[in-house]
Amino acid sequence: MSPGAFLQASARRALRTARPMQRWLGRMLPLALPAALLVWELAVHAARVPVYLVPPPSRILAVLWTERAFYLQAAWVTLGEAIAGLALGMGIALGLAVATTFYPPLERAVMPLVILLKAIPLVAIAPILTLWFGFGPIPKVLMTALLTFYPALVSWMTGLRAVDPAALELMQAWKASDWEVFRYLRWPSAWPYTFTVLKTAIPLAFIGAVVAEWTGASGGLGRAMWLAQTNLDMPRLFAAAMILAALSLTGYAIAAWGERRVIRWGA
């Protein structure tokens, strides 16, 4: 048997072995979360952990059900702030990325300021925004925008410059204008990075909104978590944290689904 035929036969055997494993993992993955909750429940009861330290999942789910109206309203407030801040941060990032593409010297002037702003801790910015703009949604939206702005800017700047050098030289040889290069070459190159931005920025958007709510708000999941922490009410604190995690995972899943659809459509 030639080396090529041997390698092909080995690859086919490995593929036949991997397929049952993939099917088994596909069946087991939906059971991972219930299994983790069951282990959590049993471990808390077996160790007799006090509720004010780590509540069992059954207690948390009971709180979520009995106070579902309160948590639904809080989640709606945080969701609106996160979406508004995400749109603001990504919009500014896209505009700045496009501007630096058309005028490269602008990057040297802007990036030090952007990095300086990124280096400031959130816990230092949030109280200042609350002091300036009050307890309404504005400081939460601004905090979310600040948190999502930097990864969006870096990703889009990378995407706008990740073009095929041969295609760029060809368009320059055809005397294409900067706008034509952007429209037909740079933007199609940067478009896939949009989903990378979304998958990174969506969880950050919820974190930014909750951190800002924690420092001062009249509603939202951050406010609910702060009240629960103040009263050492761990079931309510964990309930709000679970909703926050569910919102982040849902947003990430939607972005990943959109990415797969666009890739399949492009293919």
Describe the structure.
Helices cover 85% and strands 0% of the residues. It is an all-alpha fold and 267 residues long. Residues 1-11 have low confidence and may be disordered.
Structural class: mainly alpha
The H/E string reads: HHHHHHHHHHHH
The percent range for strand residues is under 5%
- Overall radius of gyration: 24 Å
Biggest β-sheet strands, sense, barrel? none
- The helix content is over 70%
Query: What is the global morphology?
Result: elongated
From the N-terminal CA to the C-terminal CA, the straight-line distance is 36 Å
Regions with little confidence, pLDDT below 50 for 5+ residues: 1-11
| Mean of residue pLDDT values | 80
Number of helical regions: 12
**Tally of DSSP β-strands:** 0
What labels would you give this structure?
mainly alpha; 12 helices
Secondary structure: elements and pairs:
Elements: H1 3-28, H2 32-47, H3 57-66, H4 68-102, H5 105-119, H6 122-133, H7 137-161, H8 165-173, H9 178-190, H10 193-215, H11 221-230, H12 234-266
Question: Would you kindly provide a brief summary of this structure?
Answer:
This protein is mainly α and 267 residues long.
